[in-house]
Acetaldehyde dehydrogenase (Spiribacter curvatus), 118 residues
Amino acid sequence: MGVVATPAAEALIAELQRRHGPLLFHQSGGCCDGSAPMCYPRDEFRVGARDVHLGDIGGQPFYIGGDQYALWAHTRLIIDVIEGRGSGFSLEAPEGKRFLTRSELCSVPPRDQPPAAR
């Protein structure tokens, strides 16, 4: 298992880092926004003892809750960004965008990709 970001997600990460400084991503699982990757200023989020560091995206650490790790350990996560508001606590929310997790097992090509490339 690991984590990568799409070019669109990396561009947004770079912009958020420019505005807010070092970042940290966390995906906890559960219902509502807890199942989406959340982006925080790095010094404003405390990583738990059961959280697993999957790697870095855009040079920023990405953690996942231990229970979620057990469910997703068989695939690599792909962090993307789409239009629409996510959680009010995640730094991208005011941008009218939200981070989204995809996996290699459930990957959906971007809509702007021609059918032959899908």
Observations:
- The chain has a mean pLDDT of 85.
- Strands lie at 3-5, 23-27, 38-41, 52-57, 60-64, 77-83, 97-103.
